[in-house]
Specification:
Length: about 210
């Protein structure tokens, strides 16, 4: 093989090698996020160790520091994934004919998923209450968001004349998300208020909130 041919193949080989490394890193990160979620939920943040997480993920412990800057960074990344999953979930119920009905179905859909998020939610609360640095980092990385699926449904209601054209639809979405987070964290997790009572309060809140809008 000539030197020219060798020079032509080297960049391609380097590119393939880099793609392989990227895939390996992505796979390792996914395993660490899955393992971290399980270990944190089972043992709590303080009792969980990077050694336990790495063993569960079947990767070298040093990768937690390299990819996530340690245990705290891994938890923050898990929380970001947790929030992103919340943001992209497609509501399973059909689009509703009124603002109240749409918001009621959306709220109950989100709150009924508490069992899947209970442990992680408790860990988030404890860390935010006991570690100011963690709380500040979490607030920087986890802003109140607008659910694009809910926003799309509200836009349809507005187009159909069910919501005044002057209403701030993104504001409605953000208000509801803030309410859901508050209920989830403080009523369902900290206070362990019975679901029947939580849902009754939620319906009263929505009745007051939507009065004059729809």
């Amino acid at each position: 093989m000539s030197e020219t041919s060798q020079l032509k193949t080297t960049p391609d080989e380097g590119a393939e090698s880099q793609k392989g490394k990227t895939r390996d890193r992505s796979a390792s990160e996914e395993r660490l996020i899955a393992a971290g979620t399980e270990i944190f939920s089972k043992h709590g943040y303080s009792a969980a160790t990077t050694k336990m997480i790495a063993k569960k993920a079947d990767v070298n412990e040093s990768l937690i520091g390299r990819y996530f800057d340690g245990k705290e960074g891994l938890l923050l990344s898990i929380i970001e994934r947790f929030i992103e999953d919340l943001r992209t979930e497609e509501p399973p119920y059909p689009a509703q004919a009124t603002l109240y009905d749409e918001l009621e179905n959306y709220l109950l859909f989100k709150l009924n998923m508490k069992d899947d998020r209970d442990c992680l939610g408790r860990i988030i609360i404890v860390q935010c209450l006991t570690d100011n640095k963690f709380r500040k980092k979490a607030l920087e990385r986890i802003p109140i968001f607008t659910d694009p699926n809910l926003l799309k449904r509200l836009e349809t209601l507005r187009d159909n004349g069910k919501i005044p054209a002057t209403e701030d639809l993104e504001g409605i979405c953000q208000d509801l998300e803030a309410y859901i987070h508050g209920v989830f964290l403080f009523d369902l997790i900290l206070s362990e208020t019975p679901e029947k009572e939580v849902f009754a309060r939620a319906r009263k809140f929505l009745a007051r909130y939507t009065r004059g809008i729809d």
